[in-house]
Amino acid sequence: MENFSFYAPTYFQFGKDAEYQAGDLVKKFGGTKVLIHYGGGSVIRSGLLDRVKDSLKSAGLDYVELGGVKPNPRSGLVYEGIDLCKKENVDFILAVGGGSTIDSSKAIAAGVVYDGDFWDFYCGKPIEKALPVGTVLTIAAAGSEGSPDSVITKEEGMFKRGASGSAIRPKFSILNPALTQTLPSYQTAAGITDIMAHLYERYLTNSKEVEATDRVIEALMLTMIHEGPRVIADPDNYDARANIMWAGMLAHNNCCGVGRSQDWNSHNIEHELSALYDCAHGAGLAITMPAVFTYCVDHDVMRFAQVAVRVWGCQMDFANPKATALQGITALKNFLSSIGMPVSLKDINAKEEDIPKLVEILCRGNGRNGSISGFVTLNEDDCTNIYKMMF
Amino acid sequence: MENFSFYAPTYFQFGKDAEYQAGDLVKKFGGTKVLIHYGGGSVIRSGLLDRVKDSLKSAGLDYVELGGVKPNPRSGLVYEGIDLCKKENVDFILAVGGGSTIDSSKAIAAGVVYDGDFWDFYCGKPIEKALPVGTVLTIAAAGSEGSPDSVITKEEGMFKRGASGSAIRPKFSILNPALTQTLPSYQTAAGITDIMAHLYERYLTNSKEVEATDRVIEALMLTMIHEGPRVIADPDNYDARANIMWAGMLAHNNCCGVGRSQDWNSHNIEHELSALYDCAHGAGLAITMPAVFTYCVDHDVMRFAQVAVRVWGCQMDFANPKATALQGITALKNFLSSIGMPVSLKDINAKEEDIPKLVEILCRGNGRNGSISGFVTLNEDDCTNIYKMMF
Lengths: 391, 391
Description:
With 391 residues, chain A is α/β, with parallel strands linked by helices. Chain A has helices at 22-28, 42-45, 48-58, 75-88, 99-112, 185-203, 211-233, 238-250, 265-277, 281-296, 301-310, 321-338, 355-364, 380-389; strands at residues 4-6, 11-14, 33-38, 62-66, 92-97, 133-137, 149-154, 159-164, 172-175, 371-372, 378-379.
């Protein structure tokens, strides 16, 4: 096991009606003037936004609002949010929505207290301070509610890049599983896929002897495999929603990543898909993961065999461990397909002739030098082969 | 799943040589004048105390020290620590040791800023403020390094009772697994048993549909079952020590307890044993758990069968689930025995004629009204039967 530090000081209020505590929690964490940041119509239609506003009013808090966050959130709205916060002397950002809204909120929070262009943080500058952020989560997926990470797409060039820093980790997150019951099944499934990807990206490690972390990841994968199909079959199943929502947070607050190297090649390869085709991140991951894992299986057959046996219930083929390893990857692919995810780039109308462009941005964009590094270092040829495998 | 809040804001520095960061961490969390609190000779003999002092000096911090914490820490030393801190204007308590030292430090931290008798907190008064506490952990066992809990024994009456409050949760904890390599094997095994108990006490729940938490608990049990025997066979196995140390923290920071009722009957029944016979808490738990679980198996056969199958690798007996449930309890008992723990009250020189006294203090002491409540409510007859089963 490798040395590490772990610090996850987000306060979680979990359960039915938890959003009514938004005002008290903002106050508890020092906010006086709030930016409520959100996406499209669903938080309005469902009445959630009004409940949150009422809660802020009851707590005696002043607020302004900024809607319009889109999936794969864009830099333009971040700049708008920063200007609004400065003009209105906002001292707390409350994200009401999913990962995109939270990531956009984190970018605004870092940008407001920074003299330069917030995009600097997405080009590698560490985020050292930010306005405090709180969240009211509406989809179990990105894990941004408990993470120090944010992913934003810059319109010029369609660069989709991440930034990170303890300062943007939410002070509190309100997780009410009932809020996810109205999600379209495709979005629920995309969220489940994103959670599975956060687990796999940490499972695929080159560090040895990190059994505790391996086992916790497997525990959450098993939870998702149990609860995912239940919630697709019965969207109103509160308990299944609840287990998925909590697993989604744990999958990405890095308790599953301690003491070890991590992968993130699938995320990097996918980011170019959702940036170019504007597909759901989870849908892109459903197509990406089986291809990446199959391409990389020989790098550590026993690791893939371990997840196949412990998580997917495969019988170990002691004479041919690679067969077991591949069986586990097939089981993942079948699972994702069974909950309604695409399994081929054709399904999201991608074109083979775009591959050179995808590979160019992936391996050469934003300061990269012809490869991406994770569980396996993948050069341009490798990435080309992987994108081809996805058709 | 039940509604819950979860807040675990301890900063963990984990790995080799982590104790050299003690000074920087105390400063980071606002300390200027430190009480170093510790137990007996081992932290002195190993040089750890000197390394910690050097780290504080390098960070420009002033300190006083108070040694002498014993297993099952007593109120007398807590009063002494409170007086010392007041006299010396201490503003940070640094525990260097195991659970007893950390619990004693937490009691001092709460007592210093309280006008009344600190024992009030151990009679049910909530702890609302305390001096900040940091820890340098030397044994994987109690989980106090990441928990808001403290257990102290009051000399008058030998009452062993717990207190809890976010204010006494450590600000930081330094976890260097190498520091545990010199522990006698009996202490290592007692620590492993305590960790298993923290997991079982949360596993035995009357709440339904908390799969994510079930699975995480099982993950850590599997980790302990894998690593426990390895570390007993090879005390210098750093990686096995590391996995146990991290699992021990996760087992008790309550990430394994969210969304559900918990048990804690085994802990309550054991506390009277270690209070009366001054045995290692873990040794008492090794004797207690199999008896309690066997006595309570009919309350929820399927829960005991689940842990038997998922954790202990028992084959499910579909015609007779209780047989599987009992097989799992036997597997636990065999595991504890295999790492060197006692399995009978005779092994710790307890006497059957003490049972009425044990039951009296357990069920009538400290405001209880003739029973203890957890997974099952146990009255005086039940507790008498359980203590008898342990001989």
